[in-house]
Amino acid sequence: MKKIFKTIFGISTLFFSLSFFSMANALDIVFAEDRPDLRTLDPRITQSRHEEMLIVNIFDQLIAADSEGNHYPGLAKSWEVSGDGLEYTFNLRNDVTFHDGTKFNAAAVKATFDSIVDPETGSQGAVDILGPYKETVVVDDYTAKVVFERRYGSALTAFTETELSIVSPTALSELGNEGFGMAPVGTGPFMFKNWEANKKVELVRNPDYNWAPEYMDGSGPSQVANLTYRLIKDTSTRVAALEAGEIDIAELVPPLDMNRFDGSGELSTIAGTVSGLPYAAFLNTTVGVFQDINVRKAFFHSLDRVKMTSDLFFGYADAAFGPISSSTPSYWKGNEDYYGYNPDGAVALLEEAGWKMGSDGVREKNGEKLTVFFPCLLEPDTCVAIQGYANKVGFDVNVEVVMKARQDELIFANGYDMLVIRWVSLDPGVLIIPFHSRNIPQPGKFKFNWARYANPELDQLLEDAESAETQETKDDLYMQIQKHIMDQAIFLAIHDQVQTVAYNPELEGVRFANGNWQLRMYDVRKK
Amino acid sequence: MEKFKIILKRFLLNKGSAFGGVFLILIVFGAIFAPIIAPYDWNAVDTGPRLSPPSWDFLFGTDIHGRDVFSRIIYGARYSLSVGVISVLFGIISGSIFGVTIAYIGGRVDIIGSRIIDVMFGFPSFLLSLLVVAIIGVGLWNVVFAVGLASIPHFARIIRSAALQVKEQPYIEACVSLGYGNIRIMLNHILPNIFPIIIVIATLDLGGAIISIASLSFLGLGAQPPEPEWGAMLSSGREYMRYAPWTMIYPGLFLFLTVMSVNLLGDRLSIALDARQSIGKGKV
C-alpha cells in the first residue's frame, strides 16, 4: 500500500515539476506604463507614444528597424525605388497571417495606406508620416507599389515607423475605425486580448509568429506568453511595484532611482536618448503676450536650460536648443547659438517692448500684466522650473497641471499661451507636423501646430524639404527651416527626451524600438 | 461676560484644547507674519542646493527646485487655513439660510427642502466636490467652492432641526403675534438662538474642510504650482520621497497637527457651549 502511495506521489511530483519546467518557457511579463488615459490602439490614428508602446508589439511594418534605425526586411522581403523617387515597390512575405486569420498580402497594404489618408479616419500622426502619398497599386498578391505625388526623401524611414503598421483589412471593415482601436488586429508577435480602461491592457503571444526581423535574437513565437501593461501614472508607485516584484519592467523611472539601481545592481536599467522633437514649449503667436516676438525672445533668454536640465535629470538628459534634438538627422548646429541664458538681455527686451516692472514683481503695460497661462501635461517639475526662471525677469507664469482631456479642450479653444510637447521621430520630416500652417488645430480637428504659426515661406520650405532629391539639399532645407523657427522664437526647446527603463535583472532581451522610446518585448526572456 | 469667562476656563483646563489652541495661535501668527518669519522667498528657485536635508540654514530642507521648505510651509499656512475657513464660511452661511428658511416656513417647503437635502446626502461629499471641480475646472478657489458646496447639505440638516426647535418656542410665537416680519424673526430671533450650534458644527467641520481641500490639491485639482498649499506640496514631494523625505514629512506633519488642533478645539467647544452642562462646576 505504501508503495502505491509512493508511486503516486512520485508521479505527481514529476508532473508538477514538468509543468513548472514548461512554465519557465512561458514567461508572464508585467510592464508598467505611465499613462492611464489610452484612447486607441490603432496605429493609423494615434500619435501617442504611450499607445504606441503597445502598438509596436501588436503590429509589424513593411520595413523593420532596430533601435539604431538600421533597416531590415520586415513584412516586405525586399523593396526597390524607381529612378524618379516616386514609386516604392515592395516584395511581400507570403507566409504571414493576421491575428484574425486573414492572409497578409498587397491588398492589406493598400487598404491600410488608403484608409490612413481618408479624412474619415481622423489620422493624427500616420497621415503626415505617409507624406505626399498618392496611391498603392496591387501589382499581384504579394507585390505592392506605393506611389507618391512628389519625391519623398524620408519614405523608407517612414515605412519603418509604428504609425505605418499594416492592419488587418477584415477586422477594419468588421469593427470600423473606432472598434478597431479598441480591439486591434495586426501581424505582430503579440495579440490583443483584453483592455480594462485606465487599468491594464493584456496581450498574449501570437503562436503562429514566425517572421521576426533578423536583428532579433529569437525566432518563432516569443518566449513571453502573457504580456500585461499595467497603467500606473504615479511614478513612485511604479517604482515601488517594480522593487516589490509586482511588475517586471517599468518605464519613465525617475533619474534618482535609475542612479540607485545602476549602483546597486538591484535592477537592470537601460536609458535611451530619443530622436525627434525635444521636450519643448510652443509659444502661442495668436493670443496674449507672446504675440510680440520680443516678449517671446525675452522668455527664451530668461531660462538657464543647461542648469535646469542637469538639476532635474541628474545627468540622464542633456539640454536641447533646436526644434529637433541633436540626435535627429539634419540637425543644425547653429541652433545652439540662439537664446543663451541672459536674464539682463531678457529684461532689456521687455523694457524695450514697453513692459515695466510692477510693484508685485510682475511687469505690466497699459494696465495689462505680463501673464502667461501654461497648461502643463508633461513633467510638472520642469514646468515649475520654467516658471521659476521666467518669474525672475517679471513674467507671471500660471502653471496648471492638466490631464489630456483638459489640454485638448484648451487646444481647440485656443485658450493657452504655451504648451509643452515631445515627439519621437526618426526623421527631421517630423517638423511638418508641428509647424506647417495646415496643422493649426481647429475645433474638431486635432493638430499639432500649437504655436499657431502660419507662414507661407515656412510651409513651402517644409514641403520642399520633404521631396528633396539629395541628402545635401535635404540638409540645407532643414537648416533653413530650423533657422526660420529659431528666428521667430516660437518653439522653446528645453531638454532631450530620455526614456529610462528599469527591469527585473533575471530578464534579458529588453530592447528599444526605433526612436528609443517604445520597448519591443518579443526578445524578452529569462537569463 | 461671566459666561464667557467660564467657557474660557473650561477650555484652558483641558490639555487637548489648550494644545490645539496654542498650536493654532502659532500657525495663524505664522501665517499673518509670514514675510517676517520666513527666512527666504517661498517661490525663489535655487535658494539653496536642491534636495538638501534639514540644517540650520534650511530648517526643513529644500525641495527639487532648491526652494526652502520651511518658508513654503509658513506661507502655505496662509493658503491651507484661509481656504479651509472660507469654504466652511461659505458652506455654513448657505446652509444656515437654507436650513432656517425651510424650517421657519415649514409645510410643503420644508418637505421639499428636506428631500433635496436627502438627495444631496446620497452623494459622498468628497465625490460631490470632485464632481463640482470636474464641472467648473481646477484651481484652488474652485476647490474651496466645491468643498463648501458639498458641505451645505450636512449643515442645512443640522441647522434645520435646531431651527425647528427654536421655532416652537413661545417667544417666537410672541414675535409673530407682534406682527414682526418673517425675515426679522429669522435673523434676529431664530439665528442668535442657534448660533452656538452653528459655531460648533462649523469648527468641527473646519478640519474636514482643510483635509478635503488638501486632498483635492494633492490630486492636482486644487492649488496649482507654485502655490505652497500643503496638499500640493505633499503631492510634488512624492517623487522624491525616498531621497528627500522632508519634502513630504513637514507639509504632512503641519497638515496633521493643524487639523488635529482644530478638531480638539471643536470637540471642546461643543462641550463648553453645551447649555446642558451646568455652569459653575470647576471640572467638566
SSE inventory with pairings:
The complex is a heterodimer of chains A (527) and B (284).
Chain A: H1 2-24, E1 27-33, H2 49-58, E2 63-65, E3 71-73, E4 76-81, E5 87-92, H3 106-117, H4 126-129, E6 133-140, E7 143-148, H5 155-160, H6 169-182, E8 190-196, E9 200-205, E10 224-231, H7 235-243, E11 249-250, H8 255-264, E12 268-273, E13 276-283, H9 293-301, H10 305-313, H11 343-352, E14 356-357, E15 363-365, E16 368-369, E17 371-376, H12 380-392, E18 396-401, H13 404-412, E19 418-424, H14 432-435, H15 456-466, H16 471-488, E20 491-495, E21 498-503, E22 507-508, E23 511-512, E24 519-520, E25 525-526
Parallel strand pairs in A: 1-10, 1-11, 17-18
Antiparallel strand pairs in A: 2-3, 4-5, 5-7, 6-7, 8-9, 9-10, 11-21, 12-21, 13-19, 13-20, 14-15, 15-16, 22-25, 23-24
Helix pairs in contact in A: 9-11, 15-16
Chain B: H1 2-12, H2 15-32, H3 34-37, H4 69-105, H5 107-121, H6 125-136, H7 140-167, H8 170-178, H9 182-218, H10 230-237, H11 246-272
List keywords for this structure.
heterodimer, A: 527 residues, alpha+beta, 7-stranded mixed β-sheet, 4-stranded antiparallel β-sheet, 25 strands, B: 284 residues, mainly alpha, 11 helices, disordered C terminus
State the shape of chain A.
globular
Question: Which segments of chain B are poorly predicted (pLDDT under 50) over 5 or more consecutive residues?
Answer: 278-284
What is the terminal separation of chain A in angstroms? 44 Å
**Overall pLDDT of chain B:** 89
Instruction: Give the helix/strand class of chain A.
Output: alpha+beta
Helix share of residues of chain A?
A: 25-40%
Largest interface: A-B, 24 and 22 residues
What's the Cα radius of gyration of chain B? Answer: 22 Å
As for the CATH topology of chain B, it is MetI-like fold
By CATH, the superfamily of chain B comes out as: MetI-like
In round numbers, the mean pLDDT of chain A is 92
Instruction: Kindly state the number of beta strands of chain B.
Output: 0
Quaternary status of these chains? Answer: heterodimer
Low-confidence stretches of chain A: 16-24
* Biggest pleated-sheet summary of chain A: 7 strands, mixed
Strand order of the largest sheet of chain A: 8-9-10-1-11-21-12
Instruction: Indicate the CATH class of chain B.
Output: Mainly Alpha
Percent range for β-strand residues of chain B: under 5%
End-to-end separation of chain B in angstroms reads 19 Å
